């Protein structure tokens, strides 16, 4: 999927961070269903649909609703007239959304590539960039989060439980095991200090 964005820049929502290197994009997009959301905060139809899409996305990715986030990523491709309008719209949307920067000509390229003529439009893509659904707006309205299962099967995603990539293993060890190791190390040190103190006290009393 990162091939679609090679040499491009994506913005992290509500932050100034840019996700621009191939490695970063690979991590953000790899092994996920990608939604390209073409919309505008000023379009009446978009204003009706965007809260539905927000709820749809949160129910699949937010810890409040699910134990583990679904393998789903969304990139907002705006038709807003100003950068302020784009920013104002994104502030009302989930933090995990990514966005094509305002004024980037790549937006037009994406519209032409996926034949987007009207908004709102949600293009659903496999990790390799192949189209699963040309415009999923009506499907999301009608079926809700349940339609993700069909997309997941069509995308042939690898279950993350079986991912054995070195980077993933390293990340897991760093993020999960290391704090436990550090905590254990601190506890061992405390126990050792206590035992040493008791031993010294025993020798003195003897």
Automatic annotation (TrEMBL):
Annotated Thioredoxin domain residues: 1-163
InterPro entries, A to Z: RdCVF (IPR029520), Thioredoxin-like_fold (IPR012336), Thioredoxin-like_sf (IPR036249), Thioredoxin_domain (IPR013766)
Organism superkingdom: Eukaryota
GO biological process: photoreceptor cell maintenance
Transmembrane segments: none
Pfam families: Thioredoxin_8
Entries under Gene3D superfamilies matching the protein: Glutaredoxin
Any one Gene Ontology cellular component term annotated for this protein: mitochondrion
Protein name: NXNL1 protein
Native organism taxonomy: Eukaryota, Metazoa, Chordata, Craniata, Vertebrata
